Amino acid sequence: MMRVTHKFSLHSQRQDLSVQKLTRPPAWPRNSIKKIFGIFFLAAVLLSVIFMVRPGNISSLEVDGDVLSCLSADQIGRETGLVGSNFWLEDRKKLLEQLSARHLCLKSASLTFIFPSTAVLKAVKREAALAVISYSASISAAQESSPSAQLDLPWSQPSTPAGEMLVSDSEGFIFEKSDRVQLPVVYIPKELNIGSHLNPGQAEKVVTIFNKITQMVNDFPAAGTTLQRPVWAKIMDDSLLMDLHPRVIFSLKKDILRQLASLQLILQKAKINIGGVETIDLRFDKPVIK
Questions:
Q1: Is domain 60-125 in CATH 3.40.50.620, yes or no?
Q2: Could you tell me the pTM of the whole model?
């Protein structure tokens, strides 16, 4: 009996030891403790650096672009108030919209940030393409649709009131008043104001016509023509009148490149007797030559 009791006691002790082994929490390795302290230390250092550096705070402003000819860097800094503010907290889209609304010479702008504290404004200014002048005129639709309409069109250059020359970019946006005589002058039969647009697509077509005809003028003198460099043009409804010796009429509703190709072909065929051509009307499917 004593032996059985003794065996039972040994077995119980073994069970107790097994339970203790299963329930005892594992001890943390010393390396893990060091890593945890290291992480906390690095986090504290990082927070200190962030507090001292204050990422995103702007201490200087740079302007990247050619907008300085119409808007100075100092003026941009004063109006935007960027220096001293935080780049990430600013409503940059609204700020740039307000800047563009105040300065129409500014076509587009974007803001970037260079660590640690520099904001860079990338600006694109509007390029002057046309000098536009408002004038009063009228032409009937019946005249415009007739092949003989060019006989009745007023070809004289309208008078220009002092200070009424405005400047448009190639998209037809009028952004300043100027007397830039080196720009092609276009008379337009509508009220024009700074901040307004020309009729959709007209400015781009007019710029294309001036550029292409200037190129023709450079090409044709050697061929014995008397085509003159375009200086001014006049819009009447959807027609563009150019007194180039000969006079040329374009339709701003139709394909401009096709009309220019027709003009070039006509000039090539008539280069010997170009002096006898008074008017070339390109508004119709078959150009009218007088």
A1: no
A2: 0.72
